Amino acid sequence: MAPLVGLAAHAATGSPAPAATQPPAAFAQCKACHSVDPGGKSGIGPNLFAVGGKIAGTKPGYAYSPAMKASRKRWDRANLDAYLANPKGLVPGTKMMTPGVSDAKKRKELVDYLMALN
Ligand code: HEC
Global pTM? Predict the structure, then answer.
């Protein structure tokens, strides 16, 4: 009960949570593997809380592919967009087995959301 009340109060004050912290519809397909819980629990994929600006493959407690750990990419907007469009294109050998999000508008919404998760 308490968390719901807290959320409502938070929404009512209008800040500091920007609208972008609401997941876009396209994030539904990511949730099967990714949590965005600030507590940091990972699932099949690493937890994505505060991923924006971080170096790829560095979330503590998650077993990344050797390719992701070796990539040393920084998750800025351009790299996130490229990874979501074609995971294996940006990080050959990644174990994120998804076909990629072909719609640029959906990718932008996803990147906005990921960058706002802080
Ligand atoms: C079938 C499961 C699965 C789905 C669906 C999936 N991912 Fe992933 N994702 C993974 C795995 C596994 C990794 C770790 C890749 C590696 O270590 O090579 C990963 C890694 C990532 C990373 C890098 C995180 C880091 O800490 O470096 C990002 C960002 C990411 N995914 C975003 C997304 C987004 C956004 C979606 C939805 C469009 C999505 N993923 C859908 C499994 C998935």
Answer: 0.87
